[in-house]
Amino acid sequence: MARTKKIKKVLVANRGEVATRIIRACKELGIKTVAIYSEADSNGIWVKKADEAYMIPGDPIRAYLNFYKIVDLAKQTRCDGIHPGYGFLSENADFASYCEKRGLIFIGPKPEHIALFGDKIASKKAMKEVGVPVLPGTDEPITDIDYAKKIAREIGFPVIIKAAYGGGGRGMRIVEKESDFEELFRSATAEAEKFFGKGDVFIEKYVKNPRHIEIQIMADKYGNVIHLGERDCSIQRRHQKIVEIAPSPRLNDEVRRELYRVAVKSMFKLGYESVGTLEFLVDEDDNFYFIEMNTRLQVEHTVTETVTGVDLVQRMIQIAEGTRLPFLQEDIKFRGYAIEFRINAEDPDKNFAPSPGKITSYYSPGGPGVRIDAAVYKDYIIPPYYDSMIAKLTVWALSWEQTVNRAKRALDEFQVRGVPTNLPLLRQIVRDKDFLAGKFDTSYLDRKLPKFR
Ligand code: ADP
Fold this sequence. Notes:
By secondary structure, the chain is of the alpha+beta class. The protein folds into 3 domains: 9-107, Rossmann fold (3-Layer(aba) Sandwich); 145-205, Dna Ligase, domain 1 (2-Layer Sandwich); 211-451, D-amino Acid Aminotransferase, Chain A, domain 1, CATH 3.30.470. The chain is built from 15 helices and 22 strands. It has helices at 16-29, 45-49, 67-76, 93-101, 111-118, 120-129, 145-155, 181-196, 253-270, 301-308, 312-321, 400-413, 423-430, 433-436, 444-452, and strands at 9-12, 32-38, 52-56, 81-83, 105-106, 159-163, 173-175, 201-205, 211-219, 225-237, 240-246, 274-282, 288-294, 337-344, 346-347, 353-354, 357-358, 361-363, 370-374, 381-382, 389-397, 415-417. An 8-stranded antiparallel β-sheet has the order 13-12-9-10-11-14-21-19, with helices on both faces. Strand 9 and strand 10 form a beta hairpin. The longest helix has 18 residues, at 253-270. The structure holds adenosine-5'-diphosphate. Residues 135, 160, 166-169, 172, 204-207, 210, 212, 236, 239, 279, 281, 291-292, 442 line the site of adenosine-5'-diphosphate. Its EC number is 6.3.4.14. This is Acetyl-CoA carboxylase, biotin carboxylase subunit. It is an enzyme of class 6 (ligase).
């Protein structure tokens, strides 16, 4: 039987908009918060929003990764829980275990599940065993190039090479034909080594023009597992999501139901706990395949919150406290459509390279059906060390068409000056006929970009 323990004070082990998001959730639950920040982040808005805030000196990135220091600070400030947000320590199983060892509640899944799903090969295997379709591919990491080539030939080109312990689209290479294989295999391995410290890669069948559909899962400590619907994250640039939608405007109902069924069943079988997301690719014939699972809160959770009315961050905290889910699957009602736009400080004229610097003027949209999650303001200087996302705009309306119209209006209201952003690109996407018609897959943006310029 799981224990129940009310969390009274949370250390937020993150920065930026997600730190603000977590602090907001805590405030509404009457939970005190402790923020951390690096030397480069002393002007961060989350630093002011928390009840207490402490600087972690030294390297600006390592400040958010130094888990011994972070846990020490949580103990010194008498916190009883730690929320890792997304990125940084959020999918570090050792961190989760260490929190528990020091008597802190890690607000997230069990370390064993973080470890399992952090390994893309092991997680595909585990999901296959519980009846979830996966793409044909290697079931162990490969380093030998001749063996790799043999496997690729067996799977049949095109194939995709992926970093076994990767993320963020890094260490990934699409190989159209055998003659390109060796070169791309070498560069994938080198990139995986550089970014993840492990050069291990695996190979799987490459799906042409798939849609990226992911299922939001929520599970308590008592075996109650529900889903909160899907998100369509097909609008990507270089395999990185930019626009996310709930529900998918063009998904066959039968496929949708089947995705929900396998997602809930597999998570029940594995004994998963907390929130989590199962990512699938859906091919042109509506076959679907599991690609990976994210054992954390995701950037795009806002669209799910908007169409279901469920606060995912508050639920995560309450699940970690040992509270039972207060609703059944049939209590979850989906209403309308939500679209989230990632506003990134990046320069469209420099191939979307990050464009840190000072925001000289900032005006965010409002009015009905508009939600903003941001951590920037006028005169804020975006530091160069972190992700380029500066704000998220989430719009909601009852019909798909109304939602797209609202998105146009809200994106037009949005003003960020001083640094280039991807706002002009987002405005073009929502004015595109194919977008309105729901005709998009993961190759949509690469296809459209030359026409948008
Ligand atoms: P990461 O963890 O690096 O984000 P994912 O495995 O989640 O990598 O894949 C990210 C994106 O890459 C997917 O949304 C999709 O666009 C593309 N992708 C991944 N695997 C395949 C595949 N087998 N076939 C086609 N596209 C793929």
